Amino acid sequence: MAYARGAIRARELPGLGDVLTTDGGFTLYVFEPDGHQAVSCTDACAGSWPPLFEPPTGRPPAGPGVCAAMIGATFDPDGGQVITYAGWPLYTYASDLAPGQANGQALNLNGGPWYVIRPSGQVVESTGVS
Question: Are 4 and 53 in contact (CB under 8 A)?
């Protein structure tokens, strides 16, 4: 399981602008089939797209530029609570091997498209440059 460490942050990525990342700088994604409300990436899907689980200490704080009121959590059918932002469950991507990469942006894998999300809560559907 992926756990949040510290705050959810905003980071500018080339071609994508300001997007949400983990405290360690790894890009966070949303999965369109989640429908802005529930975790649908489970089992094998979660192996490629690890959900951002709520740590034992509770919800992670909002870093600079991130709205604390938009951070929530939702039940994961595989167990635990997944951190949400503006209602969207958040995931990392296993092929992002270093902070600042967005190799999963606009990929259609595991049943639907994956996108980064802005601190405003807007989903970025452009392909951008990672």
Answer: yes
